[in-house]
Amino acid sequence: MKMSKSVYKVRPNDYWRIGEHENWFEEMAVKGLYLKKLGKMFATFEKGEPKQMKYRIDISIDRKIPDNQLEMYAESGWEYVTRDKFFYVFSSPVELNAPELHTDSAEQSFTIKKLNQKLMRNAIFTVMATMLIIGMLTAIWFLDGTPIYVLIEGWAIQQTILAAFIGYTAYTSLRATVSIRALRKNLMEGKPINRHATWNKRDRLRSTFVVVFTIVIGLSAVFPIVQLVKMKTETLPEENGNLPIVRLADIERNPDLIREEAEYMNDGVDWANRYSTNWGPFAPVQYDTDEIGIVSGKEWSDGSGQYSPSVHTKVYQLTIPAMADRLITDLVKWHWFDENKEDYVEMNHPNLDRLIVYEDAEMKKVFAAKGKGVIFVRYHGNANVQSIVDEIERKIMLISGSKNLSEKESN
Fold first, then answer.
1. Angstrom distances, CA of residue 93 to CA of 97, 192, 316, 379, 395
2. What would you report as the CA-atom Rg of the chain, rounded to the nearest whole angstrom?
3. Does residue 1 belong to any structural domain of this protein?
4. CA 122 to CA 61: how far, in whole Å?
5. What does the DSSP assignment read for 141-183?
6. For 218, which of 48, 91, 346, 404 is 20 to 30 Å away at the CA?
7. Which parts of the chain span the membrane according to its record (predicted)?
């Protein structure tokens, strides 16, 4: 027994353009491809001998066309092929000279009335949802004026891609509503559907774009999965490893500095002394650390209690080095609270591409960039800011070049 072969074609994207679809199906039949199924992005055809066929699309807002109506169409020479949403496709060989499914255009317009109303409701809903989502995403990206920081952190990438998809859905819903309304108006005026309308190259390119865009949407779903796999949080080891993070002991340089017993443990992690790793498409290597210690017998200079310095570090190895400068600017904005702007001082450094320093009593913040590497350090303690800069200069060499940190560790 000879097996039939299925062929997949990128289908016209505008599902509501009835005449164009009918003509496309007929062109495929002349090439020996007979429609079998309509999917979201592809139409499935079965190969056979080239033949002239007629295809007609009927509209039903109901879940299924009644069996008696299907039998009536079959008796007239029309075989049911497949459906897509509210559109039912029928075929008939040209030599049968089957009568049209609808001979009265004005009467046919009434079959479209319910569809027009449904599409209108869908369009209103999707447009409102799109506006709401755009408003929320705008706040995420631009409320704090730190779009590059948001991009690097990867919080909103998937949501933005999905919002673009929903926006495109709203656009197509509006186009469908307008087109179906215009079609109904023409039918009411006695103007039949144009069965000879053809798809031009622009339409096919647009359909291909939709396929590619949908694939991108699917791939975007991988982002949070990769982030979950890469994301981990562990207690920071007391010994200094080969990680590009600034350690408290290296800043303090005091042999009496010790780690106090953990006050808050969760899932086996000392959250006062922890390091977290993360991943993003624009920063595949990311570290976020906290560390705190005490120096026995030493108090804060204002007499407020035992001296307990702490350090917080953010580390990024970027995919695109040119983003480092803007990331530094956004990091300053993100970590800039009620301090005076003039206290954030840009400094020249022979071994760093950019360096910004903030110092106020025990609080110091340092923002540095070199090549692909960006490091932010917030330190609370009595050590001078130069010791922080020196450590950043040493650590940033691990991530500033072309190799990923994981590659360096394996070499």
1. 8, 21, 65, 80, 75
2. 32
3. no
4. 14
5. HHTTS-HHHHHHHTSSHHHHHHHHHHHHHHHHHHHHHHHHHHH
6. 404
7. 123-143, 155-174, 209-229
Same domain, 236 and 193: no
DSSP-assigned letters across all residues of 241-265: -S-SS--HHHHH--TTEEPPPPS-E
**In sequence order, what are the beta bridge partners of 254?**
none
The 10s digit of each residue's pLDDT in 35-77 is 999 987 789 999 999 999 999 999 887 767 888 888 999 999 9
Residue 253 and residue 287 in one domain: yes
Give the integer Cα–Cα distance in Å for 245 and 95. 78
Contact call for residues 31 and 45 (beta carbons, < 8 A): no
Residue of 277, 364, 357, 369 lying closest to 327 (CA atoms):
369
Sheet strands side by side (includes 6-10):
6-10, 42-47, 33-38
Task: Round to whole Å and give the CA distance between 356 and 315.
Answer: 15
Q: Residue 153's CB: how many other CB atoms inside 10 A?
A: 21
Domain count, the chain: 3
Q: Which of 275, 321, 313 is nearest to 152 (CA)?
A: 321
Statement to judge: residues 92 and 113 lie in one domain: no
Exposure string for 256-277, b = 16+ CB within 10 A, e = fewer: ebebeeeeeeeeebbebbbbbb
Per-residue pLDDT of 210-232, as tens digits, reads 777 777 777 777 777 888 888 99
Average pLDDT (384-407) is 84
CA distance 78 to 71: 9
Residue 246: give the domain boundaries.
Answer: 232-410
SS3 87: strand
Model-wide pTM > 0.70 = yes
